[in-house]
Every structure is written in structure tokens, then in C-alpha cells.
Amino acid sequence: MSPNDIRPASGKLGVLTPGMGAVATTFYAGVIAARTGVALPIGSLTQLGHIRLGKRTEDNNPLISELVSLASLDDLVFGGWDPISDNAYEAAKRAGVLTPAHLEAVADELKKIEPMPAVFSHEWVKLLEGVDNVKTGSSTMDLAEQVIADIERFRTEGGCDRVVMVWCGSTEAYHAACEIHDSLEAFEQALRASDPRIAPSQVYAYAALKTGTPYANGAPNVSADFPAALELAAQMGVPIAGKDFKTGQTLVKTILAPGFKARLLGVSGWFSTNILGNRDGEVLDDPESFRAKEITKAGVLDQILQPKLYPQLYGEMYHKIRINYYPPRGDNKEGWDNIDIFGWMGYPMQIKVDFLAKDSILAAPIVLDLALFLDLASRAGKHGIQEWLSFYFKSPQAAPELYPENDLFIQLTKLKNTLRHWAGEELITHLGTEYYQE
Ligand SMILES: NC(=O)c1ccc[n+]([C@@H]2O[C@H](COP(=O)([O-])OP(=O)(O)OC[C@H]3O[C@@H](n4cnc5c(N)ncnc54)[C@H](O)[C@@H]3O)[C@@H](O)[C@H]2O)c1
């Protein structure tokens, strides 16, 4: 590819978030603060990341935003849906992530972001309270059409050249995809018949794909990773990515596990537990929502450590994950990991990690990068699953016949090589023979 194959990022980019809770409002606030120089967009590859081009001797490391054309923070316009009618300022205040000083610095902008009525059902998110802003309609298809109309109105009123959608809503109860998800025809029939097996997040994903809006899924929900959604994404030429933002404990896991594997250290057990007190934690107190989360968190170690290839090292590994709702902590999650490893001749050792994390502070830059990179993919004419964005997800979507790549460092290499490839630059293989005489 050459950079000329990518349409420039001119005009405004609308970013729509179903869900305007802790993560979404911290994302809006951080972008607004960065625009005015109140705070730095730390953690964002699109804003602070450099990329090496050419040989190590050339010392050519431009910013990623200098290599590929990305929407500027000044050109972002925000909107969203939420079943709770708080505007973004009220929601951010309630989430309690940001200090009053930061919040007041961006208050005027946040107050303008009012949630559109949501497609919502307590069947899918049991423990959410204060719900007062929900769409009604004659069928689920009618609700989808209302979301499509919302997207088009937002596009026109915001003067947006392009729009992307990033799911920042609650984690829904886990239900595997079934026959209504197998083809677009079956799915649309189910929408018309208001089949209760359609999750609200699937309605937003459908509306996004129908309107050519790139879609990323920040929760574990089965929201765009079923055959009907892939069929629609291909038909409409829309890029998608998911699922479940990789922050906190899973981020640490995918940093540590590749290290143990690289040095062939065995792991006999990995116990992860955490306490958190935000609304996300409250929703995850419902076993059905927790099940969705458990599935996206659990697969990571198996894929990285490959117990089938290394049965002596990882074949007996015991992996346990616990999430405990503990209100006093709010968004300040504490995640403990106890890792039982073993080395030479089988001698046991232990590693303890105590991560005092701020969940939404870790997630907000991911929302920004996904919005900008999905928009880039769309302007580059890409559609379907964007596996190069696996870097951002706990449970990366991949082609049905592929296992997902979870190792953070392979994911980063893949992401950067994709950008080099799209920009017409040479890929970096780290072979390095050119520096030495054969
Ligand atoms: N913060 C992190 O580090 C992190 C990491 C991975 C995934 N996530 C996921 O991101 C999502 C958002 O997290 P959060 O901390 O902002 O949670 P939150 O509870 O503060 O916000 C979620 C918002 O979604 C709204 N919502 C629920 N159902 C909806 C629907 N059908 N349509 C529109 N809005 C809906 C809720 O009313 C709430 O305001 C959760 O699913 C969470 O599991 C967060």
C-alpha cells in the first residue's frame, strides 16, 4: 500500500459511545483537557507513540501521527446513549474518577453531552439502577432504526465528516451466539420478530454497521462477533474490532506471561482477585455478567503459555479469577495476583503483584486510540475484523479459524507493522543481519 491509498483525515470525526459511564466520560474529559493543555493524553499510542522506520542506524522515529493521517483531537465531536439521563458532567462527577479541578476545567463542554435514550433491557444488565432514559418501539428492528436515525442526526448536527462507535456500556449477561446470529437474513428476521435472544449491544452494532460506522466493542458482550455481523460488515465495507478493553489485571498478565514463557519458567498456579467499587463492579456482581467477563479473561494465559506444546511447564496450571464488588474503593481497583512459578529442577518460587489501578484512567486512552485507528482503517478501505488492534483487547476478535494473539509484545509488533505497511514503509523483522559482516 502507499499513503495515497488512504483518504486524509479532514473534517470532523464523531465518536459515539453507547454507555456514558466512568470510561466514556473519562475519555471525553481527557480529550477536552488535552486540547486546552490542561492534561497530557498519557497512555495513548496515537498521541504520544513513536514508530521506528528503516535501519537502527538511521535514527528515524517519527510520531505515529506523522506517519499516518489521523483525526486531530480538535476535530473530535462526542455523543452517546445511556439509560440513565445524566449528562456527561453529572455522570463523570458520579463516577468519581477525576479530581474536582480537572472536572471543573472541562465542565462546560461535558454538560453539552446529553445521552440519547438507550436500547436497554434489565434482562441483559440486571443490577443497573436509576434507569430513566430508554427507547420504546414496536419491535427490536424499530429500535435499531431509531439508533440509525440517532447516528444520522448526530452526523448532521455535529457537522461530522465521519463517525465511529465504541461500546462503553455495561457488561451484559453472557449468552452464546445461536442460530439467529448465523446469517444476516436470520438476524434481521429475529430483529423484526423482537427475539429476546438479541442483546441490546447487538442492536447498536447492527445500526453502526448499517450506517457504515466502524464499531469497537469495549466489553465482553457478544455484540459484533457473530456471523451475521461479519456478513453485514463485509457488505457495508466497515471495520470492526473487539472485545473487552485490555486494562488492569489482564494487561499485567499479558506483560508477565510472555516473559515466563520466553525463559521457559513453569507456572503451576495463577490466582487473580480484585476489589472494585464502581458501577462496572456492581453490574459484574451479577453472576451472568461476571460469566461474560470470566470468559474473556480466562483464555489469555492458555493462549500465551501453550500448555499443549509445553505440558511439563504449563500442563497442570491452575488459573482462578475473582472479581469482588466493594463499594468503598470506587474506581480505584486493587488487583492481586499470586503466581506460583517453578524453575531449574522444578524448584518453586512465587511472585506477588498488587496493582492499585484506576480502571477508567487505563481504559480512556484505549477508547481514543480505537476511535482514531478504526477511522484510519475505514479511510484505508479496510473492512471486517481488524486483528492488528488486538493490542487493545482482552479477548481479541480474530478470523474464526485462527486463535487470537494475546501476547502484548507480538500485538504491538503487529500493530506497528500494519501502520508501516499501510504507509508504504519496509516492515521491521528485527533480523538485523545488515549490521554485521557475514
Ligand atoms: N474500566 C476498565 O478498565 C474496563 C476494562 C475493560 C472493559 N471495561 C468495560 O467497559 C464498560 C464500561 O465500563 P465503565 O467503568 O464505564 O462502567 P459504568 O458502569 O460506569 O458505565 C457503563 C454505562 O453503560 C450504561 N449502559 C448500560 N446498558 C446500556 C445500553 N444498553 N445502552 C447504553 N448504555 C448502557 C450504564 O447506564 C452506564 O452508565 C463495561 O462493560 C466494562 O466492563 C472497562
Topology of this structure?
Layout: E1 12-18, H1 22-35, H2 45-48, H3 64-67, E2 76-81, H4 88-95, H5 100-105, H6 107-111, H7 140-157, E3 160-167, H8 184-192, H9 200-210, E4 215-217, H10 227-236, E5 239-242, H11 248-262, E6 266-276, H12 279-283, H13 287-305, H14 311-314, E7 318-325, E8 332-342, E9 348-358, H15 359-379, E10 384-385, H16 408-422
Parallel strand pairs: 1-2, 1-3, 3-4, 4-5, 5-10, 6-7
Antiparallel strand pairs: 6-8, 8-9
Helix pairs in contact: 1-4, 1-15, 7-8, 7-9, 8-10, 9-10, 11-13
Write up this protein.
There is one protein chain. The chain is 38% helix and 16% strand. The protein is α/β, with parallel strands linked by helices and 438 residues long. Strand 4, helix 10 (227-236) and strand 5 form a beta-alpha-beta unit. 47% of the residues are buried. The model has no long low-confidence stretch (mean pLDDT 94). Bound molecules: nicotinamide-adenine-dinucleotide. Residues 18-24, 81-84, 95, 118-120, 125, 128, 168-171, 200, 218-219, 244-245, 247-248, 278-280, 283, 359-360, 362-363 line the site of nicotinamide-adenine-dinucleotide (NAD). Nicotinamide-adenine-dinucleotide is lined by residues 18-24, 81-84, 95, 118-120, 125, 128, 168-171, 200, 218-219, 244-245, 247-248, 278-280, 283, 359-360, 362-363.
